[in-house]
Design brief:
42% helix; 423 residues; 2 domains; alpha/beta; single chain; binds pyridoxal-5'-phosphate; 16 helices; 12 strands; Aspartate Aminotransferase, domain 1
């Protein structure tokens, strides 16, 4: 018998991919499924990126490259964060990897020891905890509250720094997946004031840096504040802004010793990111601004339509997201009425509500217990498919005999203790 490690046995994988596999299996069997579970884009990768990637393959840029990334791409990425976010970075502050996600692991491995305390605002991206588990670091979970518009509160950080036995890191993710909250500059300044000069480091996960919708809101990176680049590893990806999720490319910005340490970790794992993919990403940064802005405007319209459509459905409460391409409605009233957990409700919409048609989305508890009673919908489908999903939901919620049958078949998804509803 194969003896798997306790790390792997306990590892919780990202549920969006599990639900995606289920949705694809149902589609393969002929079911019509609107896929709003995964945070992906319905648009093609931006044109300069595609052209540069193809050209780089034709030019045989298909061998190994430096573990830290191609020098010209690192320089381009540094110019980008200087110009867009005011982060005082040079090429030496940039390290390249396969998306934003690998930097969770690299940050943990480069900076944390067993039992180090790491503050995470929750609901939270599901791979944060598994990546801390790799090194035995200790997540300290604190809720983000809808009354604060899902913004991070400095008091929570202050309490963590004061009371935790070994406070070592703070993980921020704004614009925030799944709630759509956006940190204001003042929030980040207050946090920076608490951290500056200490040995605490910040992982700032910023995949949605171009998705801020509020009229006066804009994206701020804590790494741009005075002295804070020395305290931060800020992670960026091409998955969302340039519709390049399948290329697997991103980069992070931080102080040179940390960047070099991450380069060493990459040397011992992935070796490097594919050079032709880096050339594609560089072209995206340098030539695809117009398409990026067009895509962002389309995402904004989709999010607004999805929020407005969900808000019309009885029992659903929506706080329209200030950023990201997710809507995270409160469905506690519906869960309580149907006797299903929010994860159960999501699976009911996919599998149980209808034989021919389903909607794939995620239960909020995929993002930790703080997300229970919510659903997360992405905007990963064309507009007309989002409309079909919106039309289906109230009908699905009213099919009480199908709900009862689904609950009988899946007793683990039944809700035994009603959620507390906020009036
Ligand atoms: C908060 C957050 N971090 C990291 C990632 C991973 O990004 P990538 O697929 O580019 O690695 C995502 C993707 O959905 C995300 O939402």
């Amino acid at each position: 018998m194969i003896h798997l490690s306790s790390l792997v046995r306990d590892l919780k994988a990202e549920s969006a991919f599990t639900v995606l596999a289920l949705a694809r299996a149902l589609k393969a069997k002929g079911k019509d499924v609107v896929e709003l579970e995964i945070g992906d884009s319905p648009f093609p990768s931006t044109p300069a990126a595609k052209a540069a990637g193809i050209a780089a393959i034709e030019a045989n840029q298909t061998g190994y490259g430096p573990s830290l990334g191609l020098p010209e791409f690192r320089a381009s990425a540094a110019r980008f964060v200087v110009e867009e976010f005011g982060i005082p970075a040079g090429a030496e502050n940039v390290v390249v990897a396969s998306g934003a996600k690998p930097f969770e692991q690299y940050f943990a491995e480069a900076l944390l020891e067993p039992d180090d305390g790491v503050l995470i605002f929750s609901p939270h991206f599901p791979t944060y905890e598994p990546n801390l588990a790799r090194v035995g670091a200790r997540p300290v979970i604190e809720p983000l509250r809808s009354v604060d518009s899902f913004r991070p509160r400095a008091e929570v950080v202050a309490r963590f720094l004061k009371t935790d036995a070994r406070p070592r890191a703070i993980w921020l993710n704004f614009p925030h997946n799944p709630t759509g909250g956006v940190a204001e500059r003042a929030d980040l300044e207050a946090i920076a004031d608490l951290v500056r000069g200490s040995d605490v480091m910040i992982f700032s996960d910023e995949p949605y840096c171009h998705m801020v919708w509020g009229e006066h809101a804009r994206h701020h990176s804590i790494a741009s504040l005075p002295g804070m680049l020395d305290h931060t590893l800020a992670a960026y990806t091409f998955s969302k802004s340039y519709s390049m999720s399948g290329w697997r490319i991103g980069f992070a910005v931080g102080p040179v010793p940390l960047v070099e340490a991450v380069g060493k970790l990459i040397n011992t794992t992935a070796s490097c990111s594919p050079p032709f993919v880096q050339k594609a990403a560089q072209a995206a940064l340098e030539h695809d601004l117009e398409t990026r802005e067009l895509y962002m405007a389309r995402f904004q319209r989709k999010v607004e339509r999805l929020s407005a459509g969900l808000a019309q459905i009885e029992g659903i409460k929506v706080m329209p997201p200030v950023g990201t391409f997710y809507v995270f409605p409160d469905v506690r009233a519906i869960c309580n009425r149907l006797g299903l957990t929010s994860h159960g409700l999501a699976l009911y919409l996919l599998e149980g509500a209808d034989d021919q048609f389903g909607v794939a989305c995620l239960g909020g508890e995929c993002f930790g217990q703080a997300g229970a009673g919510f659903l997360r919908f992405s905007c990963a489908e064309p507009d007309e498919r989002i409309e079909q999903a919106l039309a289906f939901l109230p009908d699905a919620f009213s099919r009480t005999s199908r709900v009862a049958a689904f609950r009988r078949e899946h007793p683990a998804l039944a809700l035994h203790q009603p959620y507390l509803e906020v009036i």
